[in-house]
Design a protein that fits this description.
Blueprint: H1 3-136, H2 142-155
Helix pairs in contact: 1-2
Length: 156
């Protein structure tokens, strides 16, 4: 064998193999690599969008929490204000009821005082009649006695 013919044959086989590889093997490999690069780029873009969405969600949740705390504080303030109003109303109602009880007690005391005065007048009149009877040592009839008592009551 001739070294030149072997070298020439190897060069021809190498070029055929290179052509075959470039024609049939290389395009699917390049296509797969391009698809993989596209998937990686899409994944990176999606990750970036996800990171951006996460930042927005964090900001929104912080705002929502802040608004919620403000609303809770407002509701608590309103509840405290309402509680104070209820307490004041209860105090006012209790004072009114106490005044009514005191007024009723005063009226009852006045009535009892009037009854005691009336009873005292009757007793004083009876004692006066009894004393006058003993002094005069004569008995007064019932009608005269009743009219005397009425007259003495009126004088007292």
């Amino acid at each position: 064998m001739n070294l030149n013919a072997t070298l020439f044959a190897q060069i021809v086989v190498f070029f055929i193999l290179a052509w075959f590889t470039m024609k049939f093997v290389w395009p699917p490999i390049m296509k797969a690599l391009d698809e993989r690069a596209t998937k990686i780029a899409d994944g990176l873009a999606a990750a970036e969008r996800g990171r951006h969405s996460l930042e927005l969600a964090s900001k929104n949740s912080a705002d929502t929490i802040r608004e919620g705390k403000e609303k809770v504080a407002e509701v608590l303030a309103q509840a405290e204000k309402r509680a104070q109003e209820i307490i004041e109303a209860a105090k006012q109602q209790a004072k009114t009821e106490a005044d009514m009880v005191v007024a009723g007690a005063k009226a009852e005391i006045e009535q009892e005082a009037a009854r005691v005065k009336e009873s005292l007048r009757e007793r004083v009149a009876e004692l006066a009649i009894a004393g006058a009877e003993k002094i005069l040592r004569r008995e007064v009839d019932v009608k005269a006695h009743a009219s005397m008592l009425a007259a003495i009551k009126q004088d007292l």
